[in-house]
Amino acid sequence: MAMKIQEDCIACGACLPECPTESITDGDIYVIDPATCVECVGHYDAPRCKDVCPVDCIVKA
């Protein structure tokens, strides 16, 4: 499974440097590539993007 960024994303950029697989691309709304997102398994105890998101817009897809 992968993480997904919802429409209420404010494109703050907090998640970009936290992704160990570089699965997040920026734009008006950021997008997580489900083909490369591993939910930080093997890197962190929990998905870092979700932990650092200031508007809590990242959920499991």
Overview of the structural elements:
There is one protein chain. With 61 residues, this protein is mainly β. It has 1 helix and 4 strands; from the N terminus they run βββαβ. The protein has one domain (1-61): 2-Layer Sandwich (Alpha-Beta Plaits), CATH 3.30.70.20. The protein has one helix at 48-52; strands at residues 3-5, 24-25, 31-32, 58-60. A two-stranded antiparallel ribbon has the order 1-4. The protein has a two-stranded antiparallel ribbon with strand order 2-3. Strand 2 and strand 3 (31-32) form a beta hairpin. The chain is globular, with a radius of gyration of 10 Å. The chain starts with a strand and ends with a strand.
